[in-house]
Amino acid sequence: MNMEQPDMSQIASTAELRPVPPARVSDEPSSEHPVVFEVRDLDVFYGDFQAVRGIDLDIRQHEITALIGPSGCGKSTVIRCLNRMNDLIETARVEGTVTYHGVDLYGPDVDPVEVRRRIGMVFQKPNPFPKSIFENVAFGPRIAGLTADLDDIVEESLRRAALWDEVKDKLDEPALALSGGQQQRLCIARAIATSPDVVLMDEPASALDPIATLRIEELMIELKEDYTIIVVTHNMQQAARVSDRTAFFSVEVGEGGRRTGRLVEFDLTERIFTSPSEKETEDYITGRFG
Fold this sequence. Notes:
- The chain is of the alpha/beta class.
- It has one domain (35-285): P-loop containing nucleotide triphosphate hydrolases (Rossmann fold), CATH 3.40.50.300.
- The protein has 10 helices and 10 strands.
- The protein has helices at residues 75-81, 112-118, 133-143, 150-160, 164-167, 180-192, 210-223, 236-242, 269-274, 279-285, and strands spanning 35-46, 49-60, 64-68, 92-100, 103-104, 119-122, 198-202, 228-232, 245-253, 259-268.
- The strands form 2 sheets. A 6-stranded mixed beta sheet has the order 6-7-8-3-9-10, sandwiched between helices.
- Helix 3 packs across helix 4, helix 4 crosses helix 6 and helix 6 runs parallel beside helix 7 (210-223).
- It is globular.
C-alpha cells in the first residue's frame, strides 16, 4: 500500500512551503523516490560543545537510510533532529536547515508535538509502558483522540509489526512479560499506531539476540512499503542487508579531546560497501579504522 503524501497544514499552518532541490547522490536511478527530509549545514550544540558539524542529507520516501560510524560521531544526535527530540534537552541548540516535505521543521509555526506524531521513533532498548499489550499500542491513538476504531487500530498495528499472531490471545497481559524481541516489535507497533509518515530507529536491534534481530530486519524491509525509515546502527552487516542508502559519519577530535561528528560520505548502500569514494569510508568498512 502506498501512502499519500501527508497534508502539511496541521504541522505548520502558516509556514512557507519550499520546493525541494534534487538529491546530491550522483548517477541516481531514474525511478527516484521524492525527498522527505532535506538537511543542510546542520550543526548541533549541547551548551558550548558542538556535537555535529555541517551535515547535509537527503532522505527519500519509502527507503531505508542507515547511519553508520564509530561511537560518538553524532548519528543519534542527527536522527533526533528529525523529530525534534533534541528540543527536550535544555542545553541543545540546532542550527542549519531541516525541512520535512519542504516545511522548515524548526520554523516558528511548527508544532513539535505534531512533528513527533508524524515522525515516530523506536529506541535502542525496548521500552514498553508498564501497561497491557493493548494499552501500549492504544496509548498514542488515545492521546490523538482516535478512539472510535481503537480495536482495529491496535490489531492492524500489531499485524504490521508481525506480532499479532503471538499476542492476540493475551492483549490484556503485561507488555513487560514479553521477550525482548517481542517488546521491541511492540514498540514498533506503538510507533506506527498513530499513522506516522516516518519511523526513526536508533539501534533497534542492539539489545536483541540474532534471531530477534533478523525478525526486526525483516520487519523493517516490509515496513518501508508504507513508511520512510531511518536507522542508526553499529552493525555494518545490518546496514548492508536492509538499507537503500548509507551515511557514514566520523569524528574530529579537537582541543581537550572533544569529539565533533561529521558526515564523510552518503551514497547508495551498494556503492558505500563496494566502491566508496572516500578512503576513510573504505578503512571503516574494512575494519582498518573505528
